[in-house]
Amino acid sequence: MESEQNKPTLHFIQAIVEEDLRRSKNEKRIHTRFPPEPNGYLHIGHAKSICLNFGLAQQYNGMCNLRFDDTNPAKEDVEYVDSIKQDVRWLDFDWEGREYYASDYFEQLYGFAIEIIKQGKAYVCDLSAEQISTDRGTPTRPGNLSPYRERNVEENLDLFKRMRDGEFTEGARVLRAKIDMASPNMHMRDPIMYRILYAHHHRTGDKWCIYPTYDFAHGQSDFIEGITHSICTLEFEVHRPLYDWFLDQIIEPESYRPQQIEFARLNLSYTIMSKRKLLELVKNSHVAGWDDPRMPTISGLRRRGYTPESIRYFAEKIGVAKRDNMIDVALLEHSIREDLNKHSLRRMAVINPVKLVIDNYPEGQVEMLEAVNNPENIGAGTRKIPFSKELYIEREDFIENPPSKFFRLSPGNEVRLKYAYIIRCESIMKNPETGEITEIHCTYDPETRSGLPNSNRKVKGTIHWLSVAHALPVEVRLFDRLFNVENPDSQEEGQDYKTHLSPDSLKVVMGFTENSVIGAKAFDKFQFERLGYFCVDPESCNKKLIFNRTVTLKDAWAKIEKRQ
Ligand code: ATP
Ligand code: MG
Q1: Which fold has domain 275-345+474-563?
Q2: Å from CA of 499 to ligand 2 middle
Q3: Which pLDDT does position 6 carry in this prediction?
Q4: Cα gap 312→54, rounded to integer Å
Q5: pLDDT tens, residue by residue, 286-312
């Protein structure tokens, strides 16, 4: 048994759940749900909610439903439903067949509305949307009563039925709850329950021309499904009295009801998280699609090279808070590095090559040198990589006139070629017109290969390389942050978030890798020595491998943690 001290500290929602279990609330049932609106692809913020809802169900032997809150046919689509299911599965959570839709409850919700009308607590209002909005008043000034507020029950029932039957034009009438036009909570000022919308619904087709508002559907959907803990983000705290009010009208006071618990949504630096804005980026081709590797969507992160484990680890690490905060995107990057460091195979690649010739190495000779596949996992074994007279090295690993503390290659200086020999730079050749270095000429010390007498001879720098004759040309996509400011959403200077789009967020280059990556499949992951973690893009084909750089090796978060 775990001792009290070793017990991991609970976050506040776990504490609520444990207290409910202790008191045998809801016969000890724990039932959560993840309720996306299928109007876009899921993002890393949703991942937090998924991990929380499905995680609680797993931890406390409960259940978690997948429920699509599809009350707005104008913006919803099956494409989104499918992508959401794929993403939840990919994160390795299982709704065990409980795939539900708010639209499945339209008839039941309609019945609830009739019930509330019969109690004299809802009315059909003929005011325009604009009028209703201006009549709502302000938090400090009561709203105006609608002239239709005192319609009698029979007339309301008749009009509401005729709304359903399609007798009125879109926007002509709405059904409103009759609550309190002076309430300090604006959501209680006779909120709209139903509107007329002649839109084709992705599930109910043309069956309905009135649709419940999100507010009228959400709490009752939770109730219908027997949800015990209805977890949502903080902005819904002010909606809670309204959800309660709706339930008060249709269920007995002592009957079971879902408990709403609010937590702080995930905000990430250098990232936007609103689906409306992400959709705008896609529609206006600022990115190549929802799964563009620069997008914070789950599909984008997947294509970027993130693993489900890394995202779940991240969700765990950020915890669950009650107050809004901003998480450093470096923590997300740290999470994938931790995972890939343990699991990815190391390979050599050169993405900005310059040719290096070893003058004293025998012409035509090829040696197969042993290289470690993953120093973090000896079980991953070794491979042989070809070494020859002509190599590629990274252009940045050579400087003609180096600053002090530059330990890589420079004229007269020695470095080790990883898994191979120590070389010394003897001379360079340049393009006479551009001044660009075209070849670096070196000599090697044949005694310094692994296993030979001078193999332990120390030099300050080690660089990676590829044999020119054996290198495989590949396309490499280097990503940077999509936005160049920490909070692209802040409207401080009245600027639109799009003004903060970084012009350098994608750089496509031709590079080279070891030919041992031939046959790699979409989403296979590698560490290219010294360059970062890379993932095979699904656009790759037999003729051309494309690698997405997931992250570089430099872990900004590890530094931040050290400082704290
Ligand atoms: P948007 O405001 O961008 O439209 P949304 O919150 O309306 O997003 P939904 O599809 O309604 O998107 O979200 C489904 C669930 O995911 C909700 O329970 C919501 O609380 C949760 N969620 C959405 N964004 C975040 C976030 N950034 N952090 C944590 N949970 C989130
Ligand atoms: Mg929402």
Answers
A1: Ribosomal Protein L25; Chain P (2.40.240)
A2: 26
A3: 63
A4: 11
A5: 999 999 999 999 999 999 999 999 999
Residue 265 annotated as catalytic: yes
Does the domain at 12-263 match CATH 3.40.50.620? Answer given as: yes
**Which residue puts its alpha carbon closest to atom 26 of ligand 1?**
45
* Residues 70-85: tens digit of each pLDDT: 999 999 999 999 999 9
- Measure the CA–CA gap between 183 and 159, rounded to whole angstroms: 27
Cα–Cα dist 515/545, whole Å? 11
Atom of ligand 1 nearest to the CA of 267: 27
pLDDT band at 494 (very low <50, low <70, confident <90, very high): confident
37 is catalytic: yes
Q: Can you give the pLDDT at residue 542? A: 86
> Which residue is catalytic, options 28, 161, 265, 408?
265
* Residue from 25, 28, 37, 322 carrying the catalytic annotation: 37
Domain 349-464 top-level CATH class: mainly beta
Q: Name, in order, each residue with C-beta under 8 angstroms of 410's C-beta and a sequence gap of 6 or more.
A: 398, 399, 400, 401, 402, 425
Q: Whose CA is nearest to atom 13 of ligand 1?
A: 36
Q: How far is the CA of 109 from the centre of ligand 1 (A)?
A: 23
- Identify how many contiguous H helices and E strands the chain contains and give both numbers: 13, 25
Where does ligand 1 bind, in terms of residues with CB under 6 Å? 35-37, 45-46, 48-49, 232-233, 265-266, 273-275
| Helix-strand-coil split of the chain, %, nearest 5 | 30, 25, 45
305-322 pLDDT, tens digit per residue, is 999 999 999 999 999 999
Biggest CA pair distance of the chain: 101
Question: How are strands ordered across the β-sheet holding 525-528?
Answer: 345-347, 525-528, 532-536, 546-551, 472-479, 506-513, 349-350
Examine domains 275-345+474-563 and 349-464 and report if their fold is the same. yes
- The Å distance, Cα 37 to ligand 2 centre, comes to 6
